[in-house]
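[job 4471] stage=fold_predict status=RUNNING
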Amino acid sequence: MTDFPADGFALFPDRSVVALRVNGELKDLATTVTADDQVEPVTIDSADGLSILRHSTAHVLAQAVQRVKPQANLGIGPPVTDGFYYDFQVDEPFTPEDLKVIKKEMERIVRENQRFVRRVVTDEEARAELADEPFKLELIGLKGGSAEAAEGASVEVGAGELTIYDNVTRDGETAWKDLCRGPHVPGTRLIGNGWDLTRIAGAYWRGSEKNPQLQRIYGTAWPTKDELRAYQHRLEEAAKRDHRKLGKELDLFSFPDEIGPGLSVFHPKGGIIRYEIERYMRERLLASGYEVVNTPHITKGDLFMTSGHLQWYADGMYPPMVLDEVVDADGHVSREGQEYYLKPMNCPFHNLIFRSRGRSYRELPLRLSEFGSVYRYEKSGTLSGLTRVRGMTQDDTHIYVTADQVKGELTHSLDFVLQTLRDYGLNDFYLELSTKEDGNPKFIGDDALWTEATETLREVAEASGLELVPDPGGAAFYGPKISVQARDAIGRTWQMSTIQLDFNQPERFELEYTGPDGEKHRPVMIHRALFGSVERFFAILLEHYAGAFPVWLSPVQVVAVPVAAEYGDYLQGIVADLKSKGVRAEADHSDDRMQKKIRTHTTQKVPLMLIAGEQDRSNGTVSFRFRDGTQLNGIPVDEAVGRITGAIAARTLVNTAEDLA
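[job 4471] inference complete, writing structure tokens
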């Protein structure tokens, strides 16, 4: 039995425990607790444990950099998904050779088993100790406002006390120190050998182009070497599936310099995939009681002032265009111009459609849906293929309901989302509940309404039976949301659909409906986007399938390859029949040898190849060849056509002969 007070080492001697959660807060294992404290162990393989491991590895990286380059100044070094980074100001950019030297130094620090020792300091003491670190001094001055300080700054300073972590050697000497909130693993040896440095990048201090550009070193850290190798294997597989690479190889889309960064064009093959994605979604919407609307790409700024976007989202919007100014012959302005904005969101427009005439409770739920193009001024450094763009099309739905319809409609929306995603081939989900951060002025509206909305979403999410993960502070400025997180074919997680509950915009737009009592009532608004954006969803599907789409989504569904030119007419007749049934089929009459044709179309991920020679022509049959090289021979033409159209109708993924059996 443990005697109290006691520290974490006494309570949890298991070496897999690297930290404590004391009364809900993460603490170092060296923390002393009493019998009255609620204490939980944090293991190295838990989500919190991995973040602590990665942040500790970031400290080892920073110490190694300053051993190799003593004049390097420290920026910020937070844990991130699957790893960590640390920013440095150095005279010359890091090179791959520098990384090799830094890794060797990190290995030495790990072997030294330096202890991470927490020390509370005053602002003045911190400034004195870190006098040679200008970026740390700046963060000290921002203590209490770390949310606005910089991305990742919360690992350094917060609203509470200021702390420094010393790296202490076996003989009790402080080898290095850093401004940090912690916690950390007890000692560097626990970092082990499951880590690596991955890449170098540039990054502006505090994310602003007006600030100095720093050098960022990224790394990853895992509890074991085997887990590191598994992660590296996933990275290799992800590189093969990179939608930017596949988009070029399969001639699907591009980003012409003449148009501008973050603005894509879809080529014919990519266009047909996108068409099929949208077509099926529209079918599902209409069959489920949604009504289709359409709105313009620009609007007067007053609309976004009413919605709140100009107050809370202006940094993500394109600058205004001043239009409609009237100037007389003498150059005097007789009518002031108006500011117009490219729309970043569709919801204000849908509110105007709702408000365009009187509404009755009998019309609710009213589900307005649009494939609406929106434009967001993302910083150039954040753009990433189709997953982060400046121009996108959202499958945006806004649903207006009475208060007693909210829960049922949220359940309907979540069921709709999950079933539709399954139809596209995504089946592994969990849910995330994004809530407001108390005291953050970004979140508008009455606290009681926020609480009601959050609890309603929580009930609906829990009723789905899916795992529910909290996302504190991740809500939209007008309300909490559920997001569907989907895992792809190689286990990566993508945020997919969002369902947001909004009591605020109906108030701001003074939306009303007449209830059964004859009185005016305020509707509740639900925001629902299944894809997020068509572009991003396209990229996710492209990587999920590695370009080998199900037959219904494939830009070319069937290619006919004759064994010799004399069998071309026979196959052309089958192709014509398939085309008459809506199949995207073509015959390859090129002069290439048959085997080269097969290689070409296999490389292009065509799901079905039809091959015919003398025996097939004589017997009225055809042979199938599949992506994996397997074949089905001697299939009667009518049966072959039926199998093809059946696979399309069933949205089947066909890679092997068994898939079409």
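[job 4471] summary: The first strand starts at residue 6 and ends at 7.
[job 4471] exit 0
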